[in-house]
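SEQUENCE-TO-STRUCTURE ENTRY
===========================
What this section holds: a protein sequence and its matching fold, both as plain text.
Tokens: labelled as protein backbone structure tokens, with as many entries as the chain has residues.
Question of interest: how does this chain fold, as expressed in backbone structure tokens?
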Amino acid sequence: MPKFDAEQARFNMIEQQIRPWETLDQQVLDLMFAVPREHFVPESYFTQAFTDINIPLAYGQFMMAPKIEARLLQALMIHPSDTVLEIGTGSGYLTALLAKSARFVDSIDIYKDFIWDAKQKLNSLNIKNVSFEINNAVDNWNAETSYDLIVFTGALTTLDPKFQQRLNIGGSLFAIVGQEPAMQANIINRITEDYFERETLFETSLPSLISQTIVDFKL
């Protein structure tokens, strides 16, 4: 049986999945090549780290497929001065991608082993600009803090408008919203204090974020 070639698989992921799915930002492509995705997948999925699937994690959660993560990063247009709130740490891979692009990331998850594992993995890569917390972000966690970017890593049936209010002016929020089979990846941009724009990026399917709050989606 041929030995698994991670570097060739990484190259194929970018050229055969990510580029064809309209991610052409070279900074994003370079980032996806530089951060070792195989470092974050469960051991039993090591040889599938670069495949076009949502990789299962514990508690019924998943790593997003690489092409979705890349489109997410491209849409957010992250600046080195940005502060980020990541809701759902999961494997920590997206956390690493965000941290390598932004000034600081607050990553929150309700599962302590996700937080512990992600923290160890990021430390091993010398990624230090992340604060981890075990908590439920939908319960007004750290509500007085605003961010340049907010990212939900699991699907929401609806999105609480309070989260877009936590964006700084000029900031963006990424969320996959809807119910099977009609889920849409959305970017919400805060243009002024009272005006927001929403763009639908693509349709997809993702497991729901655990302990989400069900409210009406409004802009």
Residues 14 and 197 are 30 Å apart (CA to CA).
